[in-house]
Amino acid sequence: MYGKAFAPEYQGELGAALGVNSSYEEVLATASRARAEAGTALERARAGLAVAEANRRLGRVAAAGDAWRDSYRSGRSAGDAGAMAWALWSGGTLARQCGTLPLARRLLTHAVALADHGGDRLAHGYALAGLAETGRIQGDYAAVAELHEQLLAQAREHGEARHTVWAMSGIAQMHRNTGEYDKALELFEESARIAEEGDDARGRAWSLRGIADVLSVRGETERALALLSEAEAVCRRMDLASALAYNHKMRGNVLYRAGRYAEARDTYTLSLGEFRAMEEPRGEALSRLGLAKSRARLGHDLDETLAELAVLEKEFARIGLRHAGAMVSAFRTELTARSAPGTPAPRCDATTLRSPAVPARS
Questions:
Q1: What pLDDT score was predicted for residue 344?
Q2: Do 165 and 194 form a contact (C-beta atoms < 8 A)?
Q3: Domains of the chain
Q4: What is the pTM of this model?
Q5: What is the pLDDT of residue 185?
Q6: Section 194-200 average pLDDT
Q7: 161-177 vs 141-157: helix axis angle to the nearest 10?
Q8: 15, 122, 185, 341: which could form a disulfide with 214 (CB 3.0–4.6 Å)?
Q9: Nearest to 269 by CA among 282, 258, 259, 284
Q10: CA-CA distance, 298 to 301, in Å (whole number)?
């Protein structure tokens, strides 16, 4: 049995004033006032954490970076290991969102140690979850699958709906990316149900995105697009800039798989602009790949497409996205095979591998 979802990153008095479904502009305004009025270092650390998380989810990278560092310094001044751990968790999550995965791992590893030292079970679980998600995004499923399962078991034991939804959707994503679509769909649908029952609108939006992805692979394009529209409405209501951009990128994926290449091109262009505006290189690179593939299907110059793929391959290697790098290689092979004399053109409904897009939790 799960309780209502809650946001442990809103601590102290902020925990009573804000909830998991608060819009992030509201969170930012409330937390900024609390930080300005803080009477102790610990109060400033807690308010700074909420400021950092609101800015991160709004796509304001520089402000988020300043805020989590300020929160960490305040936590250190207060001598509170738990507050320091939460600040490092926020910083590690921001680093992952920005595609700096080695830094994300370092910060999150330190967060785990501090949370353990301070006896903060929730901070410890969230920091471990951050490490698990970092490995999953890189495509290192063997290393993190067991950790996802352990975190899911812990979340279920404590009845934490939000963390259960996170772990379950992460496991579903791994099943999806290894071709186990039935299992992936089952888990995404269960996580969407738990999120709805726990009043976790954000978690449900991410779960709907996963359901749409699997349905799209199965050819259920219109149903997938409808679910993405439903999730988009949540993202807009809560000011989820990063989640909205990933929603649009997924819409591009769905349209691409359906052979609607001009629509896919326009949608990838939209998500590319959104990711660039928030300085999120991982999403930007994935959108550029979708855009390059769509343009290629529409007859774009082969040499220019191959040059773009070469640039993207280096970018994916720099970030550490193994699955995306393999996807680039597969599409290059397809393009060069198509250009060979006597090679038949691909079917309109042909699809290629897709990168594991999930995002930093937003």
A1: 47
A2: yes
A3: 1-138 (1.25.40.10), 145-221 (1.25.40.10), 240-362 (1.25.40)
A4: 0.85
A5: 97
A6: 92
A7: 150
A8: 185
A9: 284
A10: 10
State mean pLDDT over 202-226: 96
Q: Give me the residue label for tokens 């999550």.
A: 93
